[in-house]
Amino acid sequence: MQTVLPFGAFLRSGHLSIAILKTLKWLTLCMTVLPALASAGQGGLAVVNGDFSDLAGLTQGNDGWYAGLPSGWIGTSNLYTLNVREGATPPICNPSQLGQLSQPVGTLEKTADVVLTFDVSDVFNGETVLKASILDGGQRPLATGDFTDGDQHILVASQVPAGTAIIIQFQATQSTPALDNVSVTVRESGSAATQLAAASTTPITVAAYYYPGTHPDPRWDKNKYPGFTEWDEIKAAKPRFPGHVQPKPPLWGYQNEAKPEVMAQKIAAAADYGVNAFIFDWYYYNDGPYLDDALDQGFLHATNNARVKFALMWANHDWYDIQGYNPADNNLKLLYPGKVTPATWDKICDLVIARYFKHPSYWLVDGKPYFSIYEMSQFLDSFGSIENARTAIDQFRAKVVAAGFPGLHVNAIVWGEPNLPGGKTPPGWPKLCRDLALDSLTSYTWVHHGALNNNTFPLSDYLAGRRKYLSFWSHAKVDYTIPYFPNAMINWDNSPRAAANADWSHPAGPTVNSVVTGNTPAAFRQSLEIIKQRLLAAPVQPKILTINAWNEWPEGSCLEPTQQTGYGYLEAVKSVFGAR
Question: Are 398 and 507 found together in one domain?
Fold first, then answer.
């Protein structure tokens, strides 16, 4: 027996059919909207209430929220909301996952490209997806695409015949994206608008952090034992709880990265799979450098080092003896303080200009050498005040200009939660960026932004961590007046650094932490796709992405192939960004 649902049940269930939609709403809306469209000056096309400022017919709630169907729009349900307080240019509209939000925008007067422009923002959990479509009068798609948050998204239906009725349509496909500033224009094929849409293929620089901990160093010999490297920890790693996968042997074996032929293999793989640059964790303390042979002996002497750029991130954090540490011993030793003297800073400036900046493979941003500072709190402590720190940076810039460059690109790592002992971050980052005249910000790992959940110890979900990070990034675009380069994390598992007898019944930093799960190559690829789309949607955002990391073996985050995943993470990079 066939069951007939009452009309209200369709609304409550969110399954109001397209046929009923057309019957009840389409004709009424077209009769009121289309006369205005005819004189819109856009080839017969225009959007009514594209900024959602007309609140007529909506039910007011709390905290700036309104519920109902926005004026000028058609919906398959009334489950839409607007907020007059959120977004860059409020109000914003939240399309429903239960159906489409549509509007007939007129009939095309001549054959041309139809260009749909709109903003998408995220005010909830940082991982929203909005499906946008340009349809003809018969609801057939002319163009469609999925979009994450970003301003001035562009969707183009090319060479649409004259006389075609045009409908625009939006639907939330993941979480609750916010829609704003919807407009439609008509351009001849090959026009500036079409070229702008084609610019979405702009190359993105993919820069992977390189941790140089797997080669011998005199400090290792002194502090641990002769010949020690962090490969020793990777080899000895063991499962700490049921289901924990350890050890994770490298597919290429336990190599000495300070050998040019070993580094050449890494460079070739990076270039072949779409990594454009290595950002070396570069250590220099008051008594000199640390772990610098991977760069100085390995990379700089590799015969193919022209294939990948390199840059420095001054890892000026306190160096504690955490290799093989047991938190129960409660005897964490500070070996090398991150704070340096102004005289040491002066040496650093002269050294990096002469040895690295002038190398033909050094990474330049707008012609300027990229130099990143890991721990800004240590940098400020080194000079005693923000004013003195600004002077130190200005002097560095002057030296770089005197060396023949147009300037220096000073980047800082911004974070809120430390992943190393003694780590701290200064307050007031937005003002600090201005006071120090920084050029950009980025991150080292999502862990710095709350992606590691010790409340679910011993496991932490990768997708939940990604939502945390993407939410941070969404706010960073508003909070900071300088560009923020997004970061992609592969994994977190620093259990190899914990002592073999460490208690794993509860978290005990810095070596006993939750282990990230769900970080498959497919999940990592999805992260890259989200980041790529957001980058391309931001018209003035430099197209730069940092990845943690090329080889953070003791922290479990590696693009380098392992026996368990093979080249899976590198394949993800290549599939999203292509080979060089």
Answer: yes
Q: Give per-residue pLDDT as tens, 192-204.
A: 444 444 444 569 9
* Cβ–Cβ < 8 Å for 160, 206: no
Q: What is the mean pLDDT of residues 144-149?
A: 84
Same domain for 116 and 21, yes or no, is: yes
Does one domain contain both 403 and 510? Answer: yes
Percent of the chain's residues with pLDDT above 90: 76
User: What is the token pair recorded at 240?
Assistant: 């700490």
What is the C-alpha R_g of the chain?
A: 27
Read off the pLDDT of residues 150-159 as tens digits, 9 standing for 90 and up: 777 889 999 9
CATH code where residue 324 lies: 3.20.20.80
Q: Could you tell me if 35 and 88 lie in one domain?
A: yes
Q: How many Å is the maximal CA-CA distance in the chain?
A: 89
Peptide bond into 104 cis (omega under 30): no
Mean pLDDT throughout 124-153? 85
Residue 29: which of 104, 101, 140 has the closest Cα?
104
* Strand boundaries in 161-294, DSSP class E: 165-174, 178-187, 205-210, 277-285, 288-290
Transcribe 36-73 into DSSP letters. Answer: HHHTSSSTTB--TTTT----TTPEE-STTEEESPPTT-
Contact 169, 135 (CB under 8 A): yes
Q: Is residue 2 part of a domain?
A: no
Q: How far apart are CA 276 and CA 279, in angstroms?
A: 10
Same domain, yes or no: 324 and 266: yes
336 found inside a domain:
yes
Which token pair is 117? 């422009």
Q: How far are the Cα atoms of 142, 149, 257 from residue 536, in angstroms, in the given order? A: 22, 11, 35
CA distance 360 to 126: 39
Query: Cα-flanking dihedrals φ and ψ of residue 568, to 5°?
Result: -55, -45
- Residue whose pair of structure tokens reads 């924990």 in the numeric block: 244
Q: Among 138, 171, 201, where does a domain finish? A: 201
